[in-house]
Structure formats: C-alpha cells, structure tokens
Amino acid sequence: MYQLKKFEFFEEKNPGKCSVPEEVKGKINCCSSGRGKIVVGCDDGMVNLLDRGFKFNHGFQAHATSVLFLQQLKQRNFLITIGEDEQTSPQLSHICLKVFDLDKTQPEGSSTTAPDCVQMRIFTNQFPEAKITSFLVLEEAPPILLISIGLDNGCIYCIKGDIARERISRFQLQVETVTDKSDASITGLGFRVDGQALQLFAVTPTSVSLFNLQDKPPRRHTLDQIGCNTNCVAMSDRLELIVGRPEAVYFYEADGRGPCSAFEGEKKFVGWFRGYLLCVIADQRNGKNTFNIYDLKNRLIAHSTVISEVSHLICEWGNVILIMSDRTVISVGEKDMESKLDMLFKKNLYTVAINLVRSQQADAAATAEVLRKYGDHLYGKQDYDGAMSQYIYTIGYLEPSYVIQKFLDAQRIYNLTNYLEKLHEQGLGSKDHTTLLLNCYTKLKDVEKLNVFIKGEDGIGEHKFDVETAIRVCRAAGYHEHAMYVAKKAGKHEWYLKILLEDLDEYQEALQYISSLEPSQAGITMKEYGKVLVEHKPVETVEILMKLCTEEEESTGGGTLDGTFLSMLPSPVDFLNMFVHHPKSLMDFLERYISKVRESPAQVEIHNTLLELYLSSDLNFPSMAQEIIGEGLNLGRSSTVGGSLAKSESKEKLAADNKDKDKEKDRLERLKKGLSLLKNGWPSDLEHPLYDVDLAIILCEMNAFKEGLLFLYEKMKLYKEVITCYMQAHDHEGLIACCKKLGDSNCGGDPSLWGDLLKYFGELGEDCSKEVKEVLTYIERDDILPPIIVLQTLAKNPCLTLSVVKDYISRKLEKESKLIEEDHRAVEKYQETTLNMRKEIHDLRTNARIFQLSKCTLCTFTLDLPAVHFMCMHSFHQRCLGDNEKECPECAPEYRSVMDLKKSLEHNSKDHDRFFQQVKNSKDGFSVIAEYFGKGIVSKTSLTEAQKTANFPSRNGF
C-alpha cells in the first residue's frame, strides 16, 4: 500500500455533518441503491426511501419485526426484501420474502402509503429453515427473477420465475458440508452473466466456488480454498469476483484466481465504483479505519481518509456513500478530469496523467493535450528525443506547425524528420510538410530514406504525400531520378518529360516514353513539348507523329485508312505549331501523311499548308545555316596562319555561292512538288480540289509561280487569265499554243480567245507579222471576227504592213462575193415562188373549180352521191369521211405540221433567253436575227380573211 502514490482525485460532496434523516427511527440493518434513490431497511420493519442529499422521501412498514435484507431492482421499480414477520403457526417460519411494486401504492391513513406486495415463504419442508447470511437478486428478462439466498449451513436457496404470479421454481445449491457453521456460512454471492452463460460465485470463509447454472443440475467448481468474511465480496465491471482478505484483495474469473493486490489490514468493506476499488481497512495499530479508493490500473490511491466505524457502503448519484455506525453519512465524488490533470501537471506527473486519461477512456483530443504538455515539459528539459516521441502521439489532433516550429533548428533536423515521416505515414502531410521532409532528406543526404519515402510500396498507392510537391523538391535538389520515379508512378507525364527535356536533355528517352503512352495522352504531350523535340530529334519526332495520326500497325497492312477511323485520331493540323521554326520537318511530316492517308478529314488544311511550304520563296533552316558557317570556320582554321585576308574573303564568297546554289536548287525542287500537288489535288473526276483554290492562286501570285497559276486558271476555265499570263511574259509561242488548246470550241474551248490574242498583237507596238498571220488563219477558219474588226484591230500596230492581211482580205472578199451571188439566186427563186402562190390564190378567189374525179380518193371506188369535194382537188364518198367532213384526210397532216411549226415559232418569239443564247452561240449572230425575221417570228403580221379560209374545204352535196 505504501508503494502507491496518493492523490486526491475524490472530494467530499457534503462537507460538514450529514446524517440519516430523523424520520428513520430504527437501526439500519440493510441498504440498497438504484433508480435515483437509496432504500434503507431497519430493525423496526420499516423501509425508508431517501432522495439525493439524504432527504427523506417516504417509508412504509415492510415487515412486522425487522428487515434483514433488501435490494432495489434496476429494470423495474421493484423492491425485494427479506424480513421477520409474526409467526402464525409453529410449523411455518417467521422469515418471509416480499416483492413490492413501488409504482403501485395503496393509501394507509392520511400520511403513509404502502405499495402493492407479493409475499412468499422462503423455507418449506423441502427447504428447511436456516440463518440467512447473504442475499442477491438477478434480473433476467422481466418479469423473471433469480433470487439467491445464502445460508449459514453452506447451502444456497435459489428461487426463479415470476414471483408476482407465483410461477416459480426452487432449487438448492450445496457449497460445503461442514459441521462448524462458522466456516460453512455463505458470506458473499455474485452473478456472472456472459452472453448466454449464467454463473454464480459463492464465497465462504474457507472457499470460493462457482456454479454453472446452465447445467442440470448445476455443477460446482472450487476456485480457491480461501474465502472471506461478510461485506468483503463485490463484483467488478469486468465480471470479476473481488474478495478482500487481511493480506490482499483477490480477483477471480470463471477459470480461477486472477491477479491480486496486496493491501495490509483487515478489510471491513470491499466495493467497486467506476473502475476503482473501494476498501475500508481497519488499522490494528491505532484502532482506526481508513477508507481508500484504489486505481489499480494506474497503481495509485485516488482517495484516502480516516473514518470511524462504517455500517454500510453503497454507490448512488455518481458518489460513494458511507453510512457510519453513528448514523452520520460521508458522500465522496470523483473530481472532473481537468482538476485531476491540473493536480498532476503541478507535480510534473505527466506519465501518471497520460495513464489516467487512457485508463478512463477520455476522448482522443484530451489525451493529445496531455501528451502535448508532456512533450513541452520534456522539450523544456532539452530531452528532444523524448519530447518528439510524445509529439508523435498527438498527430491528428495537434497542429503540426506547433511541433515543426520547435524543431526547425538545424541541430534538431533528425527529430523533425522523424515527426514528418510519421505525419506522412498517417496520410496527414500537406504540400508544405512534404516539401519540408524532402528538404530534410536532401540536407541530410540520406538517399536510403529518400528511396524508402519515394519508392516505398505504399507511398504513391495511398498518396502519403503530395506528388507535385515531391517532384518539385527532388528536382530542385538535383535528385532527378527520384522526381522522375514519382512522376511516372503517379502518371504525371508532363513532369516526367519536363525533367527529361529541361534538366537532363534526354530527348531520345523522352521520345520513347511518349511512344509508350496512350494515344490520347501522347497527343497532349506532343503538343506541349513538340517544339523542343523537333529541334533536336526531328526524324524521330515525325515518326511518333505519324504513328499517332495514322496508328501505323501491322494490322493495317499498309493500306489506306478508313475515314471514320481517322476522325477518331489526332489530326496533323493539331501539331502545326510545333514546326514554327522547322518548316522542312513539317514538310516531310505532311508529305508522309498524305502519302499514307487519302481521305483525311483535314485534307484541305493539310494541302494548304503543304502548298504554302512548297511555294514559299525561302525556307530558313537554322541548323543548316550553322553547319555551313561551321564548315567555313573549319576551313578557315585549316589554312595557314600566315594566309592573307584576300584568301579568307574568297573562301567566304565561295561558301555563300554554294549556299545560294543549294537554296535555289531546293526551291526549284519545292516548286516542282508544288505543281505536282496542285495537279494531284485536283484530278479530273473531282469538281472541287483538295485545297483552297483562292489561297492557292494567292500563293502562286505572291511567289510568281507561273506554272501553278496557269494550271489553276485552266482548271477554273478562266481562259482569258491564262492568256494574260502569257501576254505578261511576252511568250508569243506559248500564247499561240495556249489559244490552240483553249480556243477550240469543239473541245469546250473559248474561240473568243483568238480575238483577244489579235487585239494583243494589234496593240503590241512591234513587228509580229508571223504570229498575226497564224492567228488570222484560225480566225478565218472558225469565222470568229468580221474582216472589218480585224482590220481595225491590226491598224493600231504601226509595225504591221498591209501584206500581213492581204491574203486574208482577198479570201474573205471572194467568199463574200460567192455568198452574195448565192443570196441573189435564192431571192430570185423565192420571188418566183411567191408570185406563183399569189396567182394561185387569185385564181382560187376569182375562178370556179371543176371537180372531174370519178373515183373516191380514199376507197378508190366509183364516186357516187352523196360526195364531198375539197378545194385541194380531192373527192370522197360522204360515208368514207364519216364525221370528219371539214378537212381533207390527205392534206390534213401536212396542214397540221405547218400550223404546229407556226405555233412553235410564235412560242419561240416569246422565249427571249433562247433567242439570245442562239445569237451568242452562233458564229454569225446576224444570220440568226435574219432567220427570225424571215420566219415572221419577230415582225407582227396579220392574215387576211381570204388567207385564213384558203385551205378550208368547200362541201357540195347532191
């Protein structure tokens, strides 16, 4: 006992004198607590109920003589008592058991009330009477009760069932059979309920036994051969039996004796309260009693006070209550945790404080606060390792900056590293903490720990640290391998490549890494780092881009790719900005792409870009320029030191000439490719080309690419622009050849080009007789221009003589003369025909017609009456004509065709578009107009009445 430290964790709740109320007249034999009240049984048979502060509530007469034992139930407001009543007959015992329902009271007079009571006799013929030494009630599932009554003869009477309804069963347990009752009496009982197991502890002065009540009959197990006196038996909250003996306090479990605590002195009372052991110990040396409260887990005495003789010990209202023999009452309550901790902190007993909060299951925040104070105490004593061990336990509750600030001193870097490691292990490290920890590793140059932290199995999978922070710190400290490892594991491709390209200049490895990524991620990465890669590894970069844009796999077999599939792939247009300073690489990339892909969704943009590269007048290649300059410098160094300045200048001039020749050669090759691209991009079967025509024309004009312009103008049927190009170049031979090709109307050409060509030569102002004669040949062949226009056009050129057009004019005049003669003959013929028609019309109007036909024109039989004669000299039987008597069957078709032609001509006279189209398409528009006038389509003519009826038949019937 003297080895335990003493503390005042309890305090007296009612300082001063507190005693049993005066209303309690008799001597207190027994006490019980529960449901917020204390129940007192007296030797006068009264049961008194006391409220908080030991104030009298009410009382009632429970037994006639004395109340020996009582117990307040917890689950129901029932009170069970054992007492002495009047003996009604010698055969019946005066000891009886009563169950009071405190919720149901019956009035007894004006001032007292008595609850409902169920009474039963304990002893029967089967269970003979003996002195009761102990009493215990177990509440099973209400209303089932298990009442155990210990006797001085070593037996235990058990009553089980619903006592209120008298549905009970009795059985007896025999603990010991000893002749001396002082050694066999039951001094204490205790129930142990563990799940479905129900066990009963029984204590005598010489033994500790355990009955398993599940067995039929219950079996007895002897746990120990020593026992204790009355009032020295209790049950802990861990279902352990507590037995107090003079030498020690013993704890028993179902399998036997457990630990014991050696406390000197005779134990008068033993109890258990909220994890504390309660003992009233008699000191034989001074004859005084000491009341101690032990905290066995923390090995300390929580309270100790000297008291007088104790009558009863109970617990209620969160206090320990001692009823003394002189009827005074001592109530002791536990102090709050803060008061207890303050007491320990003042004495620097931090270890005790920590054990205390842990044993009493305080919340984690309170425990962390105690640990922090202990850590501060150790830190103040410069025990940095010990302080850090305490601070580590506060992780998750104490702000990390509080600890970090204390250990920022360079001499405490090891402790700081340890704390930061634990912080990250629990997943509580922030970006700043990760930065600080990695800086600690790098300052300590502890590569092994850095490897464990970075490359640990659980590190990245559980995100024990901020990935980007770790990468940034390792990179800044020069630990590129570790930074790359983290970036790769975490999928931070941009960081991985940034380290490779910006720090290590590992361009080839970067390309390999990009090729191993998913296509979508690889495309994003190439857009970001493509410029650097193209600058250092242009060929390999183009290979990767081709793979991304076409996914060149063995499964494709080298064929063209499907358009739907290509729409899901990146487009080369997305990567154009990579090649800002490397147009040659871009040109190679696009050339390979269009050779592989025929139907790209972005083919117009690709062809436009490639065409612009082909037609650009100059491509700057920094690498080539540096190489050429470097070669020039090397040549200069290889010359003798004493060489003259003139030699070096000549070499520089030679290098410049070679450079110009190479550039010119490259430009010619590009122009050749450009023309091929223009032609291949606009095949004859396509209405629209694979490039923007307007842009192509602008590029050709800006770069003076004549061949491209001619091709585009020809494809767009802009023939006049084609010959304009030749005119501007003064290429007469090409101009005439172009007109031969494009001026043939039979092949869809424009014959008017010859007129433009003649005009060009007429305004040329130089001798071009040969060319004019050739042009006149085609103008005369196709009759493109009238001679007068030809003469007026050529007259503007003072260098041309009449001999150029002499033969042309003579042939035209001869031809015109023949045409005039033919026209005269046609006029005479038409006049003669017209005169004959007029005579015939006059004859029809003035003279009679004699019909001499003897046969019907239709059936060729002899003509008989009735007959029909027409003015066209055809005669018919009337029966042969049927209903059609108004027109001659023989002449009607010809007449209808003439009338249809007339209607068609009248309709055509209103179709102006057709008229002008014929005039435009005809070689001689004047002849078309003359034909319209000749057919009477244009002129407004009206027929006379005689003309309208000239062809109408005349019917004579006989």
UniProtKB/TrEMBL annotation:
Name a Pfam family for this protein. Answer: VPS11_C
Question: How would you summarize the oligomeric state and partners of this protein?
Answer: Core component of at least two putative endosomal tethering complexes, the homotypic fusion and vacuole protein sorting (HOPS) complex and the class C core vacuole/endosome tethering (CORVET) complex.
Question: Which is a GO BP term held by this UniProt record?
Answer: organelle fusion
| Residues of the RING-type domain | 856-891
Q: Describe its function.
A: Involved in regulating membrane fusion at the tonoplast and the prevacuolar compartment.
Region annotation (Disordered) ranges: 643-663
| A single Gene Ontology CC term | HOPS complex
Source organism, top-level taxon: Eukaryota
Q: What is the annotated localization of this protein?
A: Endomembrane system; Vacuole membrane; Prevacuolar compartment membrane
The record, for CDD domains, names: RING-H2_Vps11 (cd16688)
Q: Name one GO molecular function term.
A: protein-macromolecule adaptor activity
Start and stop residues of the CHCR repeats: 391-542, 561-770
Protein keywords:
Membrane, Metal-binding, Vacuole, Zinc, Zinc-finger
According to UniProt, the name of this protein is: Vacuolar protein sorting-associated protein 11 homolog
Zinc-finger keyword on record: yes
Q: Which family does it belong to?
A: Belongs to the VPS11 family.
Task: Provide ranges: composition bias, Basic and acidic residues.
Answer: 648-663
Q: Does the keyword Cell membrane apply?
A: no
Instruction: Write down the membrane topology.
Output: Peripheral membrane protein
